[in-house]
Design brief:
Elements: E1 2-8, H1 15-24, E2 29-35, H2 42-46, E3 51-54, H3 59-69, E4 74-77, H4 88-95, E5 102-104, E6 107-109, H5 115-131, E7 141-143, H6 144-149, H7 160-171, E8 174-176, E9 181-183, H8 186-191, H9 193-208, H10 213-223
Helix pairs in contact: 9-10
Length: 224
């Protein structure tokens, strides 16, 4: 079984559409939504479709909380603004029958069609496919046993998916599926396309050189 774990924070505009898509996927699954303190109708809406947990804000903490109660032997972490394809769950199950510990999906942006965003799409998918480093919006999935043995997501303020990806590379093979996953370009629209991409690269460089996640989080918030 695949446990679909969705961290949320004030996602009343997107969560119902996603949960309906997850429900319609073929394959054995459970849906776990982990709320980080929403002040809108997110929890009310999500409760109609999924098991809802309440926890401390922070994607790493929220995803770990969901993973602790998950019953599936595969954990699939999905962001609230994702758009899913009908055969995704079946492709994940098929992939995990092979010699892989997990993987992710090629992303595309469904709400901002520009040449620049196409460039971001291509380079993001190259990074995942050839370097084996996946961001959270690429729908990371992993064997539950591997995830728990690694101690789960690092519970840091930012860069938790990047750090998990670096650790996973040392454990085993990851596979990029052929089925894509959609994500919103709302960060790019809000902060500016070029400015946002440069900020993201800046975060990666600073993190690699040892800047504390708490400081990176402050830089990220001030730049938005």
């Amino acid at each position: 079984m695949v446990s679909v774990i969705i961290p949320v924070m004030n996602e009343e505009k997107t969560i119902e559409k996603l949960l309906k898509e997850v429900q319609s996927l073929k394959g054995e699954k459970e849906i776990i939504v982990v709320d980080g303190g929403s002040t809108d109708r997110t929890v009310e809406i999500a409760s109609k479709y999924a098991t809802v947990l309440r926890g401390e804000k922070g994607r790493g903490k929220q995803m770990n909380k969901g993973a602790k109660v998950a019953k599936g032997d595969i954990l699939w972490f999905v962001h609230a603004d994702a758009a899913l394809s009908n055969n995704t769950l079946m492709e994940i199950e098929k992939t995990m029958q092979g010699n892989y510990i997990g993987g992710g999906l090629p992303l595309y942006f469904y709400d901002h069609y520009t040449f620049f965003m196409k460039f971001v799409t291509i380079t993001s998918n190259w990074r995942a496919k050839y370097l084996g480093l996946y961001y959270g919006d690429q729908g990371i999935f992993i064997k539950a046993s591997i995830f728990h043995a690694m101690g789960g997501y690092p519970e840091i303020e930012i860069m938790e998916d990047w750090e998990l990806g670096r650790r996973l590379k040392k454990v085993g093979k990851m596979k990029m599926l052929s089925t894509p996953i959609g994500t919103s370009a709302r960060r790019f629209k809000r902060g500016g396309q070029v400015k946002t991409l440069l900020l993201m690269h800046k975060m990666k460089i600073l993190y690699t050189f040892g800047v504390a996640p708490s400081k990176l989080c402050k830089i990220y918030r001030e730049a938005r």
